Amino acid sequence: MSSLTLPVSTLGTPRIGPRRELKTALESYWSGQSSADDLLASAAGLRAANWARQHALGITSIPSNDFSLYDHVLDTSVMVGAIPEIYGWKGGEVPLDTYFAMARGSQGHAPDPACAGHHHHDASGVPALEMTKWFDTNYHYMVPEFTSGQRFTLASTKPLDEFLEAKALGYHTRPVLLGPVSYLKLGKSQDPTLDPLTLLPALLPVYVEILRRLAANGADWVQIDEPCLVLDLDDATRQALRVAYGMFAYAQPRLKLMLTTYFGALGDNLDTAVELPIAGLHVDLVRAPEQLDAVLAKAPSGLVLSLGVINGRNIWRANLADLLDRLEPVVARRGLDHVQIAASCSLLHVPIDLEQETGLDPELKSWLAFAVQKMDELATLGRALAGGRASVAQAIGASALAATTRATSPKVHDAAVAARTAAVTAELAQRQSGFADRHALQQSVLDLPVFPTTTIGSFPQTPEVRKARAAHAKGVLAPADYEAFLRQETEAAIRWQEEIGLDVLVHGEFERNDMVQYFGEQLSGFAFTKSGWVQSYGSRYVRPPILFGDVSRPEPMTVEWWRYAQSCTEKPMKGMLTGPVTILNWSFVRDDVPRSVACRQIALAIRDEVQDLEKAGAQMIQIDEAALREGLPLRRGEWGHYLDWAVESFRLCASGVGDATQIHTHMCYSEFNDIIEAIAAMDADVISIETSRSKMELLEAFVSDRYPNDIGPGVYDIHSPRVPAVAEMTELLDKAAERLAVSQIWVNPDCGLKTRKWDEVRPALVNMVAAAKELRSRFAEAAE
Question: The domain spanning residue 252 has which CATH number?
């Protein structure tokens, strides 16, 4: 192996460990089975392994401080001492339990069963910080909370500690910091008049101090992530960037800063970025390959350009020859010492090692690259660009062969699906009649009372249900016995719903593992990993399905379970499906066709299921689009295009039924105000949404836009173990009735009940039915 190489970097690596060691260590600590020292020792072992792995694979610019026990934004809040008062921190070193209280709350009087045997929590109990999506990824970060007159202080030297830890092991690393401007923009203030950016002058001295200590201890480069540079920015934010980096350059002139941007193009922020006093600039050429020419044209000749060409967010193998065709002219033009090759963003978003996947189809496997394989690709590119292609000819040949077989494989390309997708017309995405006509017909068929009651779909997945599923998966529980168990659970849930007087029932989804996986496993074009875990937040990891080929539905997926459930009751039983946009947004999506095409294929497959449910007799079919808003592009100018194809995909799967069939959809926690027109355009007969936490404020959007269809504003927050009283729910329904026509309102919880316990669910739903009945009688009196 040639030692001549261009500098290559990962920008950051997964923290969780190849066998989810971090999850094991955290949960053992939280449950009181292990000590803080045990947890910190496990974490140090994972960091050492990460550095060693990158070094062995030929990564030359190895990051440090990319590891986190929970979340890197939370780490930044702790580093700068932005710890809200309720956590009781009085200065000095931040205790581990304060950190975890910010991450997941701490239990006071009502112990969380997940934290049984706790010996580290205070008695008062505090809520966790708010959590939200990290840009447009499926990773969640803990939202920093600021107050007027916020003071910052260097409360944790984690970036320095981990740099020194790596140094002691023989690795000279490039520490990673979340940039001060992006950090402030990711936060929020309880005081609506406070713009977090005005806190920059107070924040910068803390950053200067950590940079000073890094430089004093031998750091030469520091990576500072400012992903806000790919957003629509105002002049105040651009000015904040100039102030921050001007101060860094003045305070630490010898330290070289690699300013890192990712998840999109710099666009109209390019001029600002290249004028900053920085030594290097990283750009994402996977999400925004078109920006390369503009960056090359404007970057000063002394600026080191880090080119993010290996996809840090998806699992496809790179075509190395194609990349070299693009990169060689850049290196020739700028010189070996002014170009670096990197992942497009941190490898946090991809699974760790493809070699662990022994069960994947070998051909499909040859088209994939997880974090370890991507490091190998980076090292290969670095050697080829410094020492010529001949030095890595074998790797380039293997990569070209994989690209060719993938492009022509019948596993990927299905002529029938292509023909069907091409034949889609606008009519296919239209219901036969408008909502008013459908509503009247549905009402005459269904004969529901005002304020009809239902739930979102899933019921508690008890330990018994999970145990039975695991036993069935291992082959210990025979298919017939497993099916009998599921029928029993389903029937019991239906009987109970009838007993408490719900109007529209669900079957409880006991047979389903996950709302996307369950469908993906039955559709062609999807594959599933055994160990392809990716961090969603904290110790919660997901295994996204791999959407590798054309999608079709070989046979009905839910019809038999629906049929069985409906046979147990006279009341209407909803068919329950996951919508195409959500299946797309929660998968690793193929990169050889536009996302809109993949989504349309999934929509046609779900359309077949919707029509089969209707044929089987289903009068109500719910198609959940939990992730519709999640897929919104980061730049507002690109929203329209996305919403057009996302809404069309939903309508395509929902519009193949008669007017009498009622289509429901559910959307999770979302700011609806800015996409209300798109939601109206979905034209679902009934939409259920989360409104309990916001005390129905979310409904304002539906009022001002005169949303015509039916709405089920969630009347209780299922994300909490609390059981709300009848009066609480009637108050929320009163608020809804002030804003909407009584004939529009449905009564339901604000999300599925899968994660709750039956002893929380039972009293809450009994109260919900009572609240609906109270409103019915009140409005009946008013009508007389």
Answer: 3.20.20.210
Q: Say whether both 389 and 526 belong to one domain.
A: no
The burial of 566, by beta-carbon neighbours within 10 Å (0-12 exposed, 13-18 middle, 19 or more buried), is given as buried
- Say yes or no: 491 and 597 in one domain: yes
Contact between residue 45 and residue 60 where contact means Cβ atoms under 8 Å apart: no
Q: Which range of residues forms the domain containing residue 35?
A: 8-68+157-350+364-408
Q: Quick check: 541 and 23 in contact, CB under 8 A? A: yes
Residues serving a catalytic function are: 719
Same structural domain, 543 and 677: yes
Q: Whole-angstrom Cα distance, residue 757 to residue 739?
A: 33
CA dihedral 51, 53, 59, 64 (to 10 degrees): -20
**681, two tokens:** 């355009």
Classify residue 221: in a domain, yes or no. yes
Can you give the length of the chain in residues?
784
655: helix, coil or strand?
A: coil
Together in a domain, 404 and 522? no
Tell me how many degrees the CA angle 488-489-493 measures, rounded to the nearest 5: 115
Quick one: 314 and 442 in the same domain? Answer: no
Beta-ladder partners of 707: none
Longest dimension (CA), the chain: 89
Q: Is 447 left (phi over 0), alpha (psi -120 to 50) or beta?
A: left
Q: Where are the alpha helices (DSSP H) in 299-392?
A: 320-334, 362-365, 371-387
In a domain, 115, yes or no: no
Amino acid residing at 626: A
Domain contains 148:
no
Number of domains in the chain: 2
Burial class (CB in 10 A: 0-12, 13-18, 19+), 307: buried
DSSP state of 741: -
Same domain, 647 and 666: yes
Long-range contacts of 591-598 (CB under 8 A, 24+ apart): 591/311, 591/314, 591/316, 592/406, 592/407, 592/412, 595/645, 596/645, 596/649, 597/421, 598/547, 598/551
662 and 590 in one domain? yes
SS3 (DSSP) at 667: strand
Distance separating alpha carbons of residues 112 and 125, to the nearest angstrom: 10
Question: Could you say which of 408, 441, 475 is where a domain stops?
Answer: 408
78 within domain boundaries? no
Query: Does one domain contain both 320 and 424?
Result: no
Split the chain (784 residues) into runs of 10 and give each run's mean pLDDT: 81 97 97 97 98 98 98 98 96 95 76 37 70 93 95 97 98 98 95 95 98 98 98 98 97 96 98 98 98 98 97 98 98 96 98 97 98 98 96 97 97 96 96 96 96 94 93 95 96 96 96 92 97 95 96 98 97 98 97 97 98 98 93 95 97 98 87 84 93 73 83 83 88 90 93 88 95 92 67
Neighbour-count burial for 276-291, b at 16+ CB within 10 Å, e otherwise: bebbbbbbbbbbbeeb
